Amino acid sequence: MAFLLDDAAFGGQLMVGAGQPAAIGVGPGSKVRGSAFVEAPMQVGKAGAFNSAEATLMVGQTDNVDCNSPNRSLYVKGDVKIEGDKRTPNALHITGAHSTVLQVDGNVVGSKNIKAQREVYSNGGAHRLSAKKNFDIPHPTKEGWRLTHSCVEGPEAAVYVRGKLINTNIIKLPKYWEKLVDPDTITVSITPIGSHQNIFVKRFDTTEIILESTENIPIHCFYHIFGERIDTERLIVEYEGDIEDYPGDNSERSIAGYHYDKKVI
Fold first, then answer.
1. What does pTM read for this prediction?
2. By three-state DSSP, how is residue 126 classified?
3. Which letter does DSSP use for residue 16 in this model?
């Protein structure tokens, strides 16, 4: 039997269906005043928005002329926490008829993985995450301009140090290079400053580079030193198939076109 009410007020709890919602308390002394429980499914908004019971909570746009049919179906001011489980690993699934189905006017922070089936755009749509690895900032010297750089790409997981020497022949490498860099992969580039000095590398390891000059004059130069990381498997540069066919350890790779478009954690 249905009852038609013009207005209804509940000073305590609203309970719909069967169940004992411990989260909001049950009975005198424990119930949370002004709380509500709906066994579900529950639908809010336009009556014809859904053809079947597709979720616990279904929210559609409204046809209610008293609120001028707002474009938003769901508007949350405050924190939102969404968790999935083994049965529902995709805890948040958004579809819509319009090009923009989710708008967030603030920061999005994820403690785990954020997955997109297609592209991820940033900077007002100016940057596509899978296209390249770069940064884009206001130009430091040209007002009204921007400065964009792309990451250096190569066939190895390499690190580098660079700098300038004056009146010394020893280049001290970072302490962490001892456990990070394969000493057999170290390369050294030297550019003399001021004049030719006939500089060469006398010896090297993961702690320091020793230079020497045949001119027997104080060394003054720029240096650039590369080394390949030893704490990860070497990159397999070319392989047959699609991106999921990579024959190495994919857990060591973080690639826009892989983690964001293909890989399911």
1. 0.49
2. coil
3. E
Q: Is pLDDT larger for residue 69 or for residue 202?
A: 202
Q: Whats the size of the chain, residue-wise?
A: 265
Exposure b/e, 110-127, CB count within 10 A at least 16 = b: eeeeebeeeeeeeeeeee
Q: How far is CA 200 from CA 169, 170, 208, 241, in A?
A: 10, 12, 14, 44
CA gap 238, 242 in Å, rounded:
11
Which amino acid is it at 66? Answer: D
Report the DSSP beta bridge partners of residue 166.
220
Inter-residue contact 82 to 112 (CB < 8 Å): no
Reduce the DSSP state of residue 252 to 3 states and report it: helix
**Per-residue pLDDT at 262:** 39
Question: Strands of 187-192's sheet, edge to edge?
Answer: 158-166, 220-228, 187-192
Among 149, 174, 170, 145, smallest CA distance to 161 is for 174
User: 229: which DSSP letter?
Assistant: B
DSSP per-residue string spanning 120-153: -EEGGGTEETTT--EEEEE-SSSTT-EEEEE---
Question: Is the pLDDT at 253 greater than 80, yes or no?
Answer: no
